[in-house]
Amino acid sequence: MREPLDPDMFDPVCPSDLAPIRFGDKWSGLIIRCLEHGPRRFSELRVPLRGISAKVLTGSLRTLERDGLVSRTAHPGPLQRVEYALTPLGRSLLGPMATACAWAEEHWDELLDAREAAAGLT
């Protein structure tokens, strides 16, 4: 059995929309990170992605599947179970995402300063 996803794996004071490098839609990068250590069920993904609605999560998963980054496997049985997993193509994004995250962390103060300066101009 897999270890459950940490409900606090994404820092709420570290909004993903601050990073200027985005992978897919607002949630795609976070979904990919949730699938990094193996397949997950829809309900498992909702734990760390508290701010996402079921409709938006479904749409993001479908887009990731359409783009070949995520696979969807339905397990038959009396209680049908569906799992999502990274494909080899999706897994190949983990390295570039780690690089982008490291860059954003290194330049976090500059990014915040730029956002605050821009907000002061409006």
From TrEMBL:
Domain of life: Bacteria
Gene3D superfamilies: Winged helix-like DNA-binding domain superfamily/Winged helix DNA-binding domain (1.10.10.10)
Pfam families with a match to the protein in the record: HxlR
Domain HTH hxlR-type stretches: 14-112
Keywords of the record: DNA-binding, Transcription, Transcription regulation
PROSITE patterns given in the database record: HTH_HXLR
Record carries keyword Transcription regulation: yes
SUPFAM superfamilies in alphabetical order: Winged helix' DNA-binding domain (SSF46785)
Tagged with keyword Ubl conjugation: no
Protein name (database record): Helix-turn-helix domain-containing protein
Organism this protein belongs to: Microtetraspora glauca
